[in-house]
Design brief:
It catalyses: UDP-alpha-D-glucose = UDP-alpha-D-galactose. The chain is of the alpha/beta class. Helix content is 39%, strand content 18%. It contains ten helices and 14 strands.
């Protein structure tokens, strides 16, 4: 039996990862300050430590209390638009917290580290599909903060032997097919849950940011990956780290959907229209971001099992209908 530390394990992707680890019989300790996470999202059987990853003393106490086989680091600021208004906060927190955690792991002799990274570090695409060797040129402070965190981990590998896997998400979406977990952010910024809430009348009309991009229908195109497929990638890269090497992987389905296509699919799955209005472009939004997942497939055997937009939307819809107040219940 292995034991893992999961920061941000009460959040969206983190909680789904904790559930998968607990289900396969691993011991899990979660660090989450619950600013954005939810106590109710932490799977039974996992140990929750309410603490801030920025607090070196609290992090050191966790490493002193348990011995871990690896660290999964999800805790981070992650709103692109907010990062453009508060760039120094994003770069400071996301970089500092990653390195604080990495330093504690090295000192404790835990030399496997999985980073929740992002496709935002690619900026504007230089090819139809983004691959691991594509130009790294973030156009948002959020993307820059994650790129700097990856570079810090590169140095931790060179000097201290900390093997790290950076998983560059494209757009995590959907919910646990068993209905146990879902997406519940405050504020919510992701397209699919916002469209669902608009259709259900749980939120305002959706705003489509920009209709004049150089895409077939003028709206941004993104690659959506089901959250449980994303979790599967996290578990698979542990074997890569066990081989004594670090790695960087893109995690996406390899195809993209426009904002208008997502709206149409949400309307179809929900059986009701999605009210929306148009607005100006947001700073830092590239027109197209689609992943090449060839390297992840080749080196880990990963395959998306929930790849259709219909299934992604359906699982998100079913969870939201069953949990209209999210983890607050009622």
């Amino acid at each position: 039996m292995a034991r893992y530390l999961v920061t941000g394990g009460a959040g969206y992707v983190g909680s789904h990862t904790v559930l998968a680890l607990v289900q396969r019989g691993d011991e899990v300790v979660v660090i989450d300050d619950l600013r954005q996470g939810h106590r109710g999202a932490v799977a039974p059987g996992a140990e929750l430590v309410v603490a801030d990853v920025a607090d070196r003393r609290q992090v050191a106490e966790v490493f002193a209390a348990w011995r871990f086989d690896a660290v999964f680091h999800f805790a981070a600021l992650s709103l692109v638009a907010e990062s453009m208004a508060q760039p120094l906060r994003y770069i400071t927190e996301n970089l500092s917290n990653t390195l604080t955690l990495a330093e504690a792991a090295v000192q404790a002799g835990c030399l496997r580290f999985v980073l929740s990274s992002t496709a935002a570090l690619f900026g504007y695409p230089d090819s139809e599909l983004m691959h691991e060797g594509s130009r790294l040129d973030p156009v948002s402070a959020y993307g820059e903060s994650k790129l700097m965190a990856e570079r810090g981990l590169d140095w931790a590998d060179r000097v201290h032997g900390l093997r790290s896997a950076s998983l560059r998400y494209f757009n995590a979406a959907g919910a646990d097919p068993g209905g146990r977990l879902g997406e519940d952010h405050n504020p919510e910024t992701h397209l699919i849950p916002l469209a669902i809430d608009a259709a259900l009348g749980l939120g305002p009309a959706l705003t489509v940011f920009g209709t004049d991009y150089d895409t077939p229908d003028g709206t941004c195109i993104r690659d959506y990956v089901h959250v449980t497929d994303l979790v599967d990638a996290h578990l698979r890269v542990l074997d890569v780290l066990g081989q004594g090497r670090s790695a960087r992987y893109n995690v996406g389905n390899g195809n993209g959907y426009s904002v208008r296509q997502v709206i149409d699919e949400v309307s179809r799955v929900c059986g009701r229209p999605v009210p929306f209005r148009t607005g100006p472009r947001r700073p830092g939004d590239p027109p197209v971001l689609v992943a090449s997942n060839a390297l992840l497939r080749e080196e880990t055997g990963w395959r998306p099992r929930h790849s259709s937009l219909s299934e992604i939307v359906r699982t998100a819809w079913e969870w939201r209908v069953a949990h209209p107040r999210g983890y607050r219940g009622g």
